[in-house]
Amino acid sequence: MTGTTETASVKAAAGAATAPAPAPAPRPARLWRGVTPWLFLLAPLALLIVFTYAPIANMIAYSFTDWDGVSPELRWTGAENYAELFTRPELFEVFWVSGYYLAASVVQIVAALYFATILSFNVRFRNFFKGVLFFPYLINGVAIGFVFLYFFQDGGTLDSVLGLLGVQTDRAWLGTPASANTSLAAVSVWRYLGLNFVLFLGAIQSIPGELYEAAELDGANRWHQFRHIIAPGIKPVLSLTVILSISGSLSVFEIPYIMTGGATGTETFVIQTVKLAFQFNKTGLASAAAIVLLLIVLAVTWVQRRLASDDKVDLV
Fold it and tell me: What is the pLDDT of residues 295-312, one digit of tens each?
């Protein structure tokens, strides 16, 4: 009986070996399989081209003209707009204002990393605190600007709270460049803290829990776990947040535009560009300024990526 079974198995194997290979799919079917993914990408690619790349191409074209944003006629001026930008240093002096937001972004990253680390462990009411930290990022920037405009005004909420604590102040929080930029940068920290917090929290929670258990068995405390497990594990996300913070500091717009309109030394490069386009009707010059800002952000990002490698760290 055993010999019969083995003979049948040998014949079956020989038959399978000599069986002809399955015929390839017809060419229309193979062509359809190749086209199908592009059909799913057609709509998002069309939206990306229409609302991103086409406006960028138009902006580049406008930067070489003297268009005022209203006239149907365009006059080609070559690189005159770029020459004007780089021969007027006052147009770049507004980048000093970005220093306040850059310093605030450091505070923001440190605070977000601290809260994300604490709330990644099993602490009481952690879901409540997660919601509290992320909620400001969900609020519209215009609404935040108007709320804090009343918060910082003379005799407003901040002065009232300080008065209850026995601190009397007659400071105009938005009256001098230093205090105004510091106040606006603080509002920026409050608003965007939740975004960095969520990024860090997701990265920390993606680290295998077995590493924490092994570290605890070896006697590691929370600081050791952060230094040797969390910090290396979130390095790519930390690099991303640094890039976002630097680019955001260079292109601040919403909060200072709503709260001060760029007055009192709070004008940023983006606010200045908007004024060139819509207040002084120099759309060509404003387009050139926008292109220069884009190139600066790309250059800073490239330098940051070269200096801080984001190679994946294998913790297991």
Answer: 988 898 888 777 766 555
63: β partners: none
57 CB-near residues (< 8 Å, 6+ apart)? none
> Residue type at 52?
T
Identity of the residue numbered 29: A
Radius of gyration of the chain (CA): 29
Placement of tokens 């062509």 in the chain: 31
Written as one letter, the residue type at 105 is: S
Q: Give long-range contacts, CB 8 A cutoff, 24+ apart: 266-269.
A: 266/97, 266/177, 266/180, 266/181, 266/184, 267/94, 267/97, 268/94, 268/97, 268/98, 269/92, 269/94, 269/95, 269/98, 269/293
pTM of the model: 0.79
- φ, ψ of residue 131 in degrees (nearest 5): -65, -40
What is the crossing angle of helices 235-250 and 283-307, to 10°?
160
Instruction: Tell me the pLDDT tens digit for each residue of 217-274.
Output: 878 787 888 888 888 888 888 888 988 888 889 889 989 999 998 888 899 999 999 9
Helix H or strand E encompassing 176: none
Percent helix / strand / coil, the chain, rounded to 5: 75, 0, 25
- On whether the CB atoms of residues 285 and 65 are closer than 8 A, the answer is no
Provide the greatest CA pair distance for the chain: 105
